[in-house]
Design a protein that fits this description.
three-stranded antiparallel beta sheet; 12 strands
Length: about 375
């Protein structure tokens, strides 16, 4: 009555690639019948034992609740062409929504209520819904100015006026498959362009992404790609004069790029935005790899985000300025000219192919 009828078993069989479909109320009877077989089969299940015994029925089969989940997680890493097509379409819708945001920025603000981060979020969401994607892949990030330095900024309610740039990390979901796209745009109306410092940071991030994509193919070690991003970031920050006092190699070894690029280069993408199967090691003693969500070699037909960034987050950088042994490598005078850049991130979704990558993201940069 309230939400309409669910799919019938017959409809589910025709819509999904499954061999059988039964209502959940039949589960105890079905398991009991399996238990009568000789020998009784083992049951591999997801969830918890409580979900299978909630109706007071004992679990009559020998059951494992871990192996199946682990196997599914691994299987989800490699995508078939149907899944890639769904991700490609999610990206197509996402690109149109990003373009709508760019168009809104170009118009500038025309009233006291406009020119706010929330307005850009509304424009993005409207386009996705209008194009048949009512669900967002995740809560979008629309961070202007220094708000862009917060990696997963959630407020989306601050005025755009007086801020240089806006970071938009937002994407549509299509058929349960998630896009994940970030762009950084200059503010200021139709003729807006990045100022000199913002453009310099943007160019570093663009070089980080291009260098990493050029390196990527099936079998590449993701840690090596991630470390390349840090090397390019270090080189760029040296060029700007923010880092100084040592060679590029020494600064990479000292992990001096980490306060400016604190997150992993990317993650698997699929039914979840941060999809399963990456085997992260959040206890890694090497801070450059600690928040890397994917470890090891990238398999062919996996889909991964490539999302380098450079941020000027006071919470992360100011403690390093006072840290013995590291603070001396950051030029505070030069750094002070970059706080209002906030942060720049560029993120695309790519399919890992045998000899390179296929970029699914078509949103203009």
């Amino acid at each position: 009555m309230w939400s309409g009828l669910p799919l019938s078993p017959e409809q589910a069989l025709s819509q999904y690639d499954i061999d059988a479909c039964l209502p959940s109320t039949d589960l105890p009877t079905h398991l009991a019948q399996l238990a009568l077989q000789s020998p009784a089969p083992d049951l591999y299940a997801t969830g918890t034992e409580a979900e299978y015994t909630a109706a007071g029925n004992p679990l009559v089969l020998r059951t494992d609740f871990t192996l199946l989940k682990d196997a599914i997680d691994e299987a989800r890493v490699v995508k078939d062409e149907y899944e890639i097509a769904a991700l490609r379409h999610a990206n197509k819708i996402t690109a149109q929504a990003h373009q709508a945001v760019r168009d809104r920025i170009a118009k500038g603000s025309s009233s006291e209520l406009e020119g706010n981060e929330r307005e850009l979020e509304a424009v993005f969401t409207e386009r996705c819904i209008a194009l048949g994607a009512p669900k967002q892949a995740y809560h979008g990030i629309f961070g202007a100015g220094e708000n862009a330095a917060t990696l997963h900024y959630v407020h989306n309610d601050q005025p755009l006026q007086g801020r240089k740039n806006v970071l938009v990390d937002a994407a549509a979901e299509w058929g349960c498959y998630c896009a994940d796209v970030t762009r950084t745009y200059p503010l200021g109306g139709q003729s807006a362009s990045f100022d000199e410092k913002s453009q310099a940071v943007y160019d570093i991030v663009a070089e980080m992404q291009a260098s990493c994509m050029e390196m990527m193919k099936a079998g590449v070690l993701w840690e090596e790609v991630h470390l390349l991003a840090h090397r390019v970031a270090t080189r760029g920050l040296l060029r700007l004069g923010i880092l100084s006092g040592a060679s590029e190699d020494e600064l990479v070894e000292k992990r001096m790029s980490v306060p400016f690029f604190p997150h992993g280069l990317g993650h698997y993408l699929g039914l979840d935005t941060h999809d399963v199967g990456g085997h992260p090691d959040y206890d890694d003693q090497d801070e450059v790899f600690r928040y890397l969500r994917v470890r090891g070699k990238l398999p062919e037909n996996s889909v991964v985000t490539v999302e380098p960034g450079v941020y000027f987050c006071r919470f992360l950088i100011e403690p390093v300025l006072n840290e013995q042994g590291k603070g001396k490598y950051i030029d505070r005078g030069v750094l002070d000219g970059y706080w209002d850049v906030g942060g720049v991130r560029i993120e695309d979704d790519v399919v890992v192919r045998k000899d390179g990558v296929e970029n699914l993201t078509v949103a203009a940069k």
